[in-house]
Write a structure and sequence with these properties.
Length: 624
Amino acid sequence: MMELLVTLSFTFPLLGTLVLALSGGRLGPRVGTVVGVASVGLAALATAWAIAIYGGGDGAVRFTLWTWIEAGAFKPTIGLAVDGLALVMMAVITGVGFFIHLFAAWYMAGEAGITRFYAWMNLFVFSMLLLVLGDNLLLLFLGWEGVGLCSYLLIGYYYQNSANGRAAFKAFVVTRIGDVFLALGLFLIFRELGTLDIQQVMARASEVWAPGDPTAALVALLVLGGALGKSAQVPLHTWLPDAMAGPTPVSALIHAATMVTAGVYLIARLNGLFLLAPDVLWLVGVIGAVSLLLAAFAALAQTDIKRILAFSTMSQIGYMFLALGVGAFDAAIFHLVTHAFFKALLFLSAGAVITSCHHEQEMANLGGLRKRLPVAYGGFLVGGAALVALPLVTAGFYSKDEILWQAMASGHNGLLLAGLLGAFLTCLYTVRLILGTFHGECGSDKARNAEPGTHLLTHHLPLGVLAVLSTFVGAWLYPHLESLFPSPPGASAETGHTLIQVLAIGTVIAGLAVAGWLFLSRAGWLRQKVSQGPGAVLWSLWHRAWGFDALYDRLLVRPWQFLVRMLRHDLVNLTVNLLALLARLLNGGLVRAQNGRMRSYATVMILGATVILLALAIGPGGVS
């Protein structure tokens, strides 16, 4: 029964994709919406049933659908492995994914190409499920590439705007860089261990490599490169803010709840490899700490509400990488789940604001929406509270507390301080976002004429369910997976846990107090400070996200473009072009000869016969 339910969980979205894609748009928007939403809803039901059957089991249920390739010792299968980690990821993908699909029925109403939208959304869900269910790294990589393709298609959904196409292309190229590293890592794993089966890889790795082995470190580095691209961590993070060009439900599903967490899942799944490379594992934590701080500062200086949430996503994934770096794999997955709840809620609430305000998303043109959009306002309050980890009542508090405690217990005090500073900055940009969007005076007629969502099923229900899951209820539902992962250093000792909780709570309270003082009592003074002098420099630097795009443009893009222009006229290229020119000239001559005129054909025949006779006459043995 388990095998059937798991198979159905990813078959339903695949069938939805095929029905929508092969319909050629003939289904109509209403039927297309029903097919797109229902396919993910059925997948969520199958997942829930599978979880109920699995219960609290510790083992993995493995089954093979068929053998994919047979080439000597290389025999990867279409095989699935279901354990606690896979089921948690399936629940997030299908559960949160269903409510995002349902909300999209309201958000995308009246949009052209709705069947195309849902076909790609369903394909994404299928690819993500394949990624987390595959029992071998090749099948995981197939799903990995599938979500990258869907990301490209959905970011560029409004392809009539060239800027959206550039954003999609940027995401595709930057994440492909990470994918190349991951592919190289898989090649090296197969060469050294002779298999891509995840279970066998974990078993053989500890037999072949000792802790600190250079080959194990190289493999871990390559896998980390792939994770950095998908999860938008420094230095492969620049694509995520621009990815907000896609529809807001796309941002909620792909760039908040699921795809960007694929790198976290990958490292957690291959935890045995990283434990054999402690220096690389430490690097994972450092990259997470750097990413969470850089993104938090950048979020302080954004004016687009979706870009603020994008940098917030990058920052929160930094917390997950920090947890992975200290060996707290369960804490990383815990925060992955709670983050999916509250960040999906924030993005969908932002979508409600954007579409109700006639596609306005600049904070300067919003404001005063608290009474006009009470449901979206409530979503921002609950989601924002979970984001800042408001003590005791929000899901974010429990998962973030677990990360900070594990960082302290492992002895990484620098990472602990980075986590606390990140929590303080999170309070600042979250309060700024809520006050700028919902309080104060309306910034434009778009805000003054905002129309609230009135659809109970497609608007209120998704926001309401995600709001409940963003409270302590979401933390209570998470099934801790300690038995699946090695215990992190100091996990058994409770010494200092209470101190960390007090520090975390104090940091949040201080952050909220400072944010209220700055953005309410000292708003005029703050605007003056960021408009001149050092404040203006910092604002510009953070608004441009620390200048990474400009740096990459000068170091990578422009030299590459110059090289392409130079090579356009190289000897090899000219030789190839000469052959092409000769072919075109011959083709032009033959085209002119085939003109359909009998007189021309007769003339050519006579001239040809004459030339042949003359050649015979003057040739060897001819008339002298």
